[in-house]
Amino acid sequence: MTETLAYFLCVLGFAGFSYKLVDARNNQPLRRMWYMAGFGVCIALGILVLTPAMEELAGGGVVFDRFATLAGDEFKLGAMAFAVAFVRSMRLGEGARLGWHAVLTFVTLAAEVVLYLVAQPTREGELTMLTSRGLPFYVAYEVLFLVYGLISLAFLTAVFARFAAAAEPGPLRAGLWLIVAGVCSAFGWTFWDVDDVRQLAVTGFVEAREDVPSAVFAACSIGFFSLGATLSVWSPSVAKIFGWFRAYRSYRRIEPLWTALRAAVPGIALDPDARLTGGAEFALYRRVIEIRDGHLALRRHFDPGLPERVHANARSAGIPEGRLAATVEAATLAAAILSERAGRCYPESDIPPPQLADAGVATEAAWLVQVSRAFRRSEVVARVRTEAAAELGLVSGAAGY
Amino acid sequence: MADKTLWRRCRQLAEGVKLPEPFDAEAFVASLAARRSRPIELMPVSAPTGGPCGLLMSTERADYILFPTNTTALHRRHILLHEVGHLLCGHVGSDAGADGVAIDAAAGRELMPNLSPELIRRVLGRTTYSEVEEREAELLASLIAQRVGREDGVRGGVHSPAAPDEQDSDIAGGVARFDLLFGGKPRRRPR
Question: Residue B155: closest CA among chain A residues belongs to which residue?
């Protein structure tokens, strides 16, 4: 089941990769397109050739049994080589030469074939068996694969991490870090072969097909690569969904304050029954504006001496500095609501608005979330409410505060 | 006016009006004044208690928008948009009722004592939304603000990276190449 799911994720990953490849054909140099295509084809074949479905399709013939493992590993080496060539082309520009890594790749590919042929592994059911004479060559074959993988993946990690760190925050940076995560998964996928080497040294045989951890590492690797490469395509939609959730969460969090103000000043509500008409962002905007309308409408009921007293009480109650202003605003509004109910006005009374960083609804909503939380939960505000009610002659049950 | 009709009309107006990019309320009002060939004067005031928290007063010569300074920037902008909404909707202030007109006129006299009452043709105060004109202006202001937020978000979220110079082998050149491939809106490479 896990293996099937992993292969399914690989298919999804390849779909994303193919999309990006088609998308990139208009803005990338031809040589770089070949590198990308080569990487995609090699990694796909490297996974495909060792799947049970492929084995069934091939009918389990002698040639397939003997050479499927070699073919799979050669394709994986090819994929790493194309990935490195692609990254060098991105780092150095269109005219970048293949350089030392190409030489290393050709030597490794050839040496792997020679070592594999000399080792003469045979297939028995699900296992690849080695004779005592072939075992050292097969171990050398596995170790060479690991060394090549270590060098290539370390290079890829270093380059992608360097570019991710240098990129501006945004989809590009997030995408590059996702690709770094993909390379790290590829490390896991490659170095899971250490387990094969250990098994070989102990038993003289090894599993012929990809095991479950390998399939999972492969799926993670392809998945992260594809997510990173296509982030610019899907991130706006995801941001929109997150934006809706953020707006809805803020809308609900400022509800206690809005409800209290609307009860005190019913005229602030444009449409009291509207709820989420117009969407969450619109509803949040309306609530923010209506709370500010309520604030202005109640200003003649603000006790001018109260903010100073609340500030001192909040400090002595140990409320953190960053929450003091919101607590003062919540207490002022709580007392003003009761004053309005009792009909008490204060001449020349006003409380200056908070100095927010910008005129955005998100900034103002974030502030009102703090005020609403203090309005509902703060013990300092509760004490102000109780004292104001007692002073104004309001009874808690009857007045409903 | 039924709610659906009100929403439809306000949506049409909000989507049809030309907004400056990036949005700036004063520039928006100035462009509206230029289109109407009639001055609109913005007058920040400390709103009196008990009065409307925004006011549109019109004389033969100009329109005056009074908005409070003693509130947050978002709220100030919204009140300004509300009063602009009256202008966009062509409201005349006929449905406020005798009490509403009296309150608005009193607030107008308090805020602009030098303006002769005989010169005033129209006074619309932002108080409650029981009147159709106030509801319409308020809804229109909210929809314009939503459009501003949406368009600012789009401008902030989408960028079209320039085609990088393939000869650059420094880190900035590499980032630019990755940006073109992964980070931005697809763009055709110059041939």
Answer: A236
On chain A, the residues whose CB falls within 8 A of the CB of B165 are: 93
Looking at the DSSP assignment, which residues form a beta bridge with residue A207?
A: A127
A235: in domain: no
H helical segments located in A167-277: 171-191, 193-203, 212-229, 231-253, 255-264
Cβ proximity of B120 and B175 under 8 Å: no
Q: What CA–CA distance (Å, rounded) separates A330 from A257? A: 8
Instruction: Pick the residue from chain B with its C-alpha nearest to A351.
Output: B70
Domain final residue, candidates A229, A264, A288? A229
Neighbouring C-beta atoms of residue A197, cutoff 10 Å: 18
Reported as a single tens digit per residue, the pLDDT across A84-96 is 998 888 888 877 7
Residue A56 near residue A128, CB atoms below 8 Å: no
Rounded Cα distance, B30 and A395, in Å: 53
Whether the predicted model's global pTM rises above the 0.90 cut: no
* Minimal-distance CA residue of chain B relative to A17: B182
Partner B contacted by A21 (CB < 8 A): no
ipTM score of complex = 0.79
Q: Which domains does chain B have, with CATH numbers?
A: 3-157 (1.10.10.2910), 164-191 (no CATH)
| Residue at A15 is within a domain | yes
Burial class (CB in 10 A: 0-12, 13-18, 19+), B22: exposed
* Judgement on whether residues A149 and A262 belong to the same structural domain of the protein: no
Min Cα–Cα distance to chain A from B16, Å = 18
- Residues on chain A touching B73 (C-beta within 8 angstroms): 356, 358-359
Residues A251 and A360 in one domain: yes
- Interface touch B129/A267, C-beta < 8 Å: yes
pLDDT in tens, A379-396: 999 999 999 999 888 765
Peptide bond into B22 cis (omega under 30): yes
Residues 6+ apart with CB under 8 A from A251: A276, A280, A283, A284, A287
Residues of chain A contacting B167 with CB distance shorter than 8 Å: 93, 95
> What is the domain range of residue A182?
2-229
Structural element, H or E, at residue B55: strand B55-59
